[in-house]
Amino acid sequence: MTLYVNLAELLGTRIENGFYRPGDRLPSVRALSLEHGVSLSTVQQAYRLLEDNGLALPRPKSGYFVPADRKTPALPAIGRPAQRPVEISQWDQVLELARAAPSPDVVQLGRGMPDVTSPTLRPLTQALGRISRRSDMPGLYYDNIHGRRCLREQVARLLLDSGTNIDSDDLVITTGAQEALAICIRSVCQPGDIVAVDSPSFHGAMQALKGLGMKALEIPTDPLTGISLDALELALEQWPIKAIQLTPSCNNPLGYIMPEDRKRALLTLAQRFDVAIIEDDVYGDLAYTYPRPRTIKSFDEDGRVLLCSSFSKTLAPGLRVGWVAPGRYLDRALHMKYISTGSTATQPQLAISDFLKAGHYEPHMRRMRGQYQRSRDLMTGWVTRYFPEGTRVSRPQGGFMLWIELPEDFDSLRLNRALQGQGVQIAVGSIFSASGKYRNCLRMNFAAKPTAQIEDAVRKVGAATALLMQRTDPA
Amino acid sequence: MTLYVNLAELLGTRIENGFYRPGDRLPSVRALSLEHGVSLSTVQQAYRLLEDNGLALPRPKSGYFVPADRKTPALPAIGRPAQRPVEISQWDQVLELARAAPSPDVVQLGRGMPDVTSPTLRPLTQALGRISRRSDMPGLYYDNIHGRRCLREQVARLLLDSGTNIDSDDLVITTGAQEALAICIRSVCQPGDIVAVDSPSFHGAMQALKGLGMKALEIPTDPLTGISLDALELALEQWPIKAIQLTPSCNNPLGYIMPEDRKRALLTLAQRFDVAIIEDDVYGDLAYTYPRPRTIKSFDEDGRVLLCSSFSKTLAPGLRVGWVAPGRYLDRALHMKYISTGSTATQPQLAISDFLKAGHYEPHMRRMRGQYQRSRDLMTGWVTRYFPEGTRVSRPQGGFMLWIELPEDFDSLRLNRALQGQGVQIAVGSIFSASGKYRNCLRMNFAAKPTAQIEDAVRKVGAATALLMQRTDPA
């Protein structure tokens, strides 16, 4: 990426995160040129880009300002989950989401689906076709338990982008990141153990805890910087926690990227209390800024971080290819992989390996990062326009999910029911909590290319929300 | 299949199972004609077929006899496993097997690999290619948790061949039968529970018990008729058994088909003691006789049988497509599927569904059944020829595995080590026992089309066996 785009992204993130507020004066061209060691014209290009995106406004002879009428909706509040380990509930609501088959009649804002219609994915389907036509039919044979070496080598190369240095022999290919998460939980914990999680937290990981008999301790989480280290420290002092499970980069559902110093501090805490960290990085490569954020795993020195990821959010989920770097738990992870599915499907591994090797991954990522960032702005705008005043909205720094918080007595389960028959579906907030918190929240997906149909769907969700709020309003 | 082939198979099975011994006179043409309600010429055709296969010898004016020089090696003895629940061991040996990647330099007699080179599989790879080329790229999308409806409907149709009547909505598609087994175990049992298993028993199921914290109680198993019902009844009286896990049709590794009345009796036992049955049917469609044997599930009336199967042995294992019919445990099985892998890869499901729908499955099965049966005879002959006198051999009635038993002090682990460097690999017997029994046994795969290279591999195994036996021989 060129220098001016980099700079524009940096400034844009600061504006979006509220570092500069509406009406604020932005740094002078000269100051930025000195600060970042770039030419004046680079800074000017960056400002023009910000201007195009509605983030900066030039005033003659005064420099650049954040537009005063720029509405940034307030951020969701920091959650106040139960201060004790709980058995995980909400399976029935997750099941409803998991059962929903893709349907052309329903705008599924609730699902975790990326956009797979980009032409930059074409080489992947071509690779699948090519492997099908090979006379030695490699896709029909069992793979071994570790996963294809060619793919592991490509994944190891990819991981370098996040500062993560892993030998390909320390990787295990999995059937999506869900299998990686379940393997990790079972590699580290026994039934009855307590696992600390960010809150809100990915429902798939929490349901894995539930299914395997563990308890979750939800830790308050800041919508811009991630899990509260103070609260986590208190919890580690108070409870016999076995592992910390979280999504620190492009969090699902909040979209934040935990700053690097906080990732390091988290690892130090884990070392002090000798607990494992299960790091879910499925959205990490979809950070809007480049280079992508580092993983916690990249700072890990004693193998206590188990890094889980997949190609489900970056390439295509239907292929079910993920991986885990289980650190010191490799032997146990291999056993868990063996009993879970024996081995991973061969053909998609070969196709993805070909795709990566031919250099198609980076251009695809570049395109998707740009598309998702633009869609985030659009979707945030739609929510600001169509949802009732006071609606709080996350400010994702990567990925394709928006988290929306409504007044405390709002019930997103009722909202979802109200939307049935209107051809729209959302993810209810309560599935992101072990104890059914966040009923007043919902998650919406903005991966698909923006269309009038999607805008209309968001308008419907906003209208149905307003209607429900009027009904519960005592006035 | 025509009448005479049917009749020949029936008689052939009786000869192979020792009902008629070498030198015995076989029933007269007239008697068989009356018994089976077929014409005399049909019986004569059947006898000619048996003659071609070396199973019957005509003597002028005296009728047909079993050739007196026909060598049928003795059957393996009924195992005498530990009479108490045990924690499962042997993971390191299973890992060695699971780690072995396909290699052109090694004849892998130890693996569970079917022959995937048959031209009758061509339509399957064509379907994979066709789906890759579709512009709507269905293979890239998440499937839902249940699996593709089109595939479930085809599987439900297929199940009718085994007398099993299952609604497609009561099926869940899985990532191979291994995931189905792990899902079932977790749907029925809690850590610490006791599961009764046939013995020898499939290592994947037992490792799943181990990984999930259950104990196995190995039940003596007859090499021709399956799990001992008397021993099972005693065990059910004595221990709080939660489930019975077994492979009753074309057992792995013994190859027997449990007779129908014994399947019914097993179910009655399970009802009486109110335990679940986890029935592994992955080899069931590969029975040499037609129609294929019924499943225990086909007699199930109260949903206590969980039927697991896959296309890994019948079509191709690299696709990782299996299924489970979990009966009354459907809700819990869906939860376990969700946390295990979320959903199954989409493209292989669609390709297999197309393959089945177009009617390619039955011709493929017919061909493979014939090939495997012929290879069984060849392999049995090679073992008889190349292994030391007194070697006991199973008489598979389906599938592509031979189980070989050597004197009690023989050590197949040492054999496998001796074979390293000779380009041959076998499966050591101890992985088929929870407690490491059957070290004196080994399993060999006869799926691949017989070649001089394979015969040479068997010869090497026989020679290495003889050498080891001489060394341990006190004389």
Radius of gyration of chain A: 22 Å
* Chain-averaged pLDDT of chain A: 93
CATH architecture of the largest domain in chain A: 3-Layer(aba) Sandwich
Count of DSSP strands of chain A: 16
Oligomer: homodimer
The CATH topology of the largest domain in chain A corresponds to: Aspartate Aminotransferase, domain 2
**Roughly what fraction of the amino acids of chain A lie in strands?**
5-15%
Kindly, what is the distance between the CA atoms of the first and last residues of chain A, rounded to a whole number of angstroms?
Answer: 54 Å
Tell me the helix content of chain A. 40-55%
Shape of chain A: globular
CATH H-level homologous superfamily name of the largest domain in chain A: Type I PLP-dependent aspartate aminotransferase-like (Major domain)
Q: Structural class, judged by helices and strands of chain A? A: alpha/beta
Q: Using a beta-carbon cutoff below 8 angstroms, give the protein chain pair with the largest interface and the number of residues from each chain.
A: A-B, 68 and 68 residues
Low-confidence regions of chain A: none
Under CATH at level 1, the class of the largest domain in chain A stands as Alpha Beta
Order of the strands making up the biggest sheet of chain A: 4-11-10-9-8-5-6-7
